[in-house]
Amino acid sequence: MHSSALLCCLVLLTGVRASPGQGTQSENSCTHFPGNLPNMLRDLRDAFSRVKTFF
């Protein structure tokens, strides 16, 4: 139990440490978000449709 909690903490800290370098990329992608939203929503609807037909 303790080793898995330690592993989770290490993974979390590694992700937090890596995230500041990606701040500029995420800021740049936010400017394109409104234009990509309809496409992303369509892809999401398609994915849910495929899951619905699967079950």
From TrEMBL:
Signal sequence coordinates: 1-18
Domain of life: Eukaryota
Subcellular location: Secreted
Any Pfam family matching the protein: IL10
Keywords attached to this entry: Cytokine, Secreted, Signal
GO molecular function: cytokine activity
The keyword Lipid biosynthesis belongs to this UniProt entry's keyword annotation: no
Recorded GO CC terms: extracellular space
Similarity comment: Belongs to the IL-10 family.
Record's function text: Immune regulatory cytokine.
Record protein name field: Interleukin family protein
Organism field: Homo sapiens (Human)
Gene: IL10
